[in-house]
């Protein structure tokens, strides 16, 4: 196990910058917001800690990258920022997300509500769900795991064509595994920052994906032509548990963060850390470190207290209703399913501690 610990001065510069314009911008923040963000360079902070590497296969070790401080983020000429006429995040589900239509609809509403709170101040809208066949994507059976996979690049092209005029970005979500190219085993997600589109799979977040009893194995791919998508009619969908919901929220917000121009975080334990495998993704927190929080606040312009309160409301709200985000097609009148938020309770306690610092 290795701990990556930066000096107080390094973290302070990464957060505030030495550029007088950015220092002045920081000093104009609310006193509570400054107090919270200053926790980044407090060695004894119990809110933000150093990055811990648990194995040689962890992201930072195997994918060396230059770190991105706030000044580099702010000065990036290629960074995309929401504009007054492009302030909507669209979510496109591809294939079924649950074993029934009701579960599918509730699950995507939970994700939509979470994104609304996480990217507080932006609109989050749902596009009408589509089957895999609508994307005309390539697909295969993975030689190692024998599960179905769809081509991430083809999905990105489909999403680009569907992008509405008022969209800041469009993100596709699916319960089918992804591959980016023939030589790769799989990928959790892929995004095009230039086009403002991304596709993310939650297939490997089910509890039994890596077990011998996984029901999604396909012995042989049988298709009459490249346009025969009948194999997806009854593909295996994991049960929507609290852990799966947490993992889904984590991946979705991490990848949308990239579309805002946030690179992988190498400063403190943070949602924007890279992850090479599921164990590492599980160790990554739901929250942004102060450096990445300042980046996102700069991009969107939210009040941090209001954002944290919205996240607490999402956790506390047993209902899945997300006003204005319901798909247009009718729903069976079965009432709302209870939102499985048990896995978020520890994070809620952390947010409440942050609110205490902000409002002191």
UniProtKB/TrEMBL annotation:
UniProt similarity note: Belongs to the peptidase M54 family.
Record keywords, A-Z: Hydrolase, Metal-binding, Metalloprotease, Protease, Zinc
Cofactor(s) the record lists: Zn(2+)
SUPFAM superfamilies for the chain: Metalloproteases ('zincins'), catalytic domain
Pfam family, one: Peptidase_M54
GO MF assignments: metal ion binding; metallopeptidase activity
UniProt-listed InterPro entries: Archaemetzincin, MetalloPept_cat_dom_sf, Pept_M54_archaemetzincn
Biological process terms in GO annotation: proteolysis
Tagged with keyword Metal-binding: yes
Organism: Colobus angolensis palliatus (Peters' Angolan colobus)
Record-given protein name: Archaemetzincin-2
Function: Probable zinc metalloprotease.
UniProt keyword annotation of Zinc present: yes
């Amino acid at each position: 196990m290795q701990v990556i610990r930066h000096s107080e001065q390094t973290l302070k510069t990464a957060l505030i910058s030495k550029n007088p314009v950015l220092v002045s911008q920081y000093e104009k923040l609310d006193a509570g917001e400054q107090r919270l963000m200053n926790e980044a360079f407090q060695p004894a902070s119990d809110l933000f800690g150093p990055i811990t590497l648990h194995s040689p296969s962890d992201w930072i070790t195997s994918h060396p990258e230059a770190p991105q401080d706030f000044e580099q983020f702010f000065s990036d000429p290629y960074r995309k920022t929401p504009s007054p006429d492009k302030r909507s995040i669209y979510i496109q589900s591809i294939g079924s997300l649950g074993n029934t239509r009701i579960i599918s609809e509730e699950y995507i509403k939970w994700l939509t509500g979470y994104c609304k709170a996480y990217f507080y101040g932006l609109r989050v809208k749902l596009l009408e769900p589509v089957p895999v066949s609508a994307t005309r994507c390539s697909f295969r059976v993975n030689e190692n795991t024998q599960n179905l996979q769809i081509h991430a690049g083809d999905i990105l092209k489909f999403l680009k064509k569907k992008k509405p005029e008022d969209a800041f970005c469009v993100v596709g979500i699916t319960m089918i595994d992804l591959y980016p190219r023939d030589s790769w085993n799989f990928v959790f997600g892929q995004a095009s920052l230039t086009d403002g589109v991304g596709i993310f799979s939650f297939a490997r977040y089910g509890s039994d994906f890596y077990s011998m009893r996984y029901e999604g194995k396909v012995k042989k791919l049988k298709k009459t032509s490249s346009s025969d998508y009948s194999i997806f009619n009854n593909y295996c969908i994991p049960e929507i548990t609290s852990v799966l919901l947490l993992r889904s929220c984590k991946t979705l917000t991490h990848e949308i963060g990239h579309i805002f121009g946030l690179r992988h975080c190498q400063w403190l334990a943070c949602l924007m850390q890279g992850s090479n495998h599921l164990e590492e993704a599980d160790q990554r927190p739901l929250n942004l470190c102060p450096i990445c929080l300042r980046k996102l606040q700069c991009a969107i312009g939210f009040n941090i207290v209001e954002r944290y309160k919205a996240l607490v409301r999402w956790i506390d709200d047993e209902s899945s209703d997300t006003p204005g985000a319901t798909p247009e097609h009718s729903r069976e009148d079965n009432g709302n399913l209870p939102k499985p938020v048990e896995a978020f309770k520890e994070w809620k306690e952390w947010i409440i501690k942050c609110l205490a610092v902000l409002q002191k």
